[in-house]
Design a protein that fits this description.
Blueprint lengths: L5 H6 L3 H12 L1 H10 L10 H5 L2 H5 L9 H12 L3 E2 L17 E2 L3 H16 L4 H4 L7 E9 L2 E11 L3 H4 L1 E2 L1 E7 L9 H14 L4 E2 L8
Antiparallel strand pairs: 1-2, 3-4, 4-6, 5-7
Amino acid sequence: HGTVNLDKGIRHSCNAYFAQLATFEVGAQPLLDTAKLFGIPVARPNTAKQLKDALPQAAYGQGQVIATPFQMARVAATVAAGGKMPEGRWIVGGDNPRSGAPAPVLDAAGTGVIARAMRGVVTEGTAAAFLASVQPPIAGKTGTAEVQDQKSHSWFIGFAPYSATAAGGRHIAFAVIVEHGGYGGRLAAPAAGEIVRRAAALGLLQQTPKGGTPE
């Protein structure tokens, strides 16, 4: 990928960039602490000492990292909300409990950088072939979960509409995994696009123009 910064690393899913970022800049403890905010274990046992042994791989989600779609949807929601992590709840049957107020866990400026890069994933990066024309606009990230002796899982997480992060309004976050679906978002990204289309058709998404009144 040539010379790579954070934005380009996210857009083009460059594992080598994140491996070097974690090893030479971030370190094991900060990565462990941030993952713990979302309940995501990154080593077994889940300690900085253990993580250090596989830090390059853990930095791009491999190694001993274990995450559920529910957890990853919450990560996407936190990015969409400018660093405020919503309270996650399962909805069972007809119950629809209201979530509590989001708690700030990440820096707003930093999550803004990540959100813009995630939009770039869709417009020109690894999901562009599947989602570039989808409306309302999506921001997201493709992923590949390698499985020993089997075909990899296909991941895509994200949120929509992208502009709602800056202008207010209502948006959704999602995580899609297609087990043994192959590399990157080849199958997961189109499924996510269909979720967004259906949500928009049902009137679940609103964007707020500059005047402040929801469309």
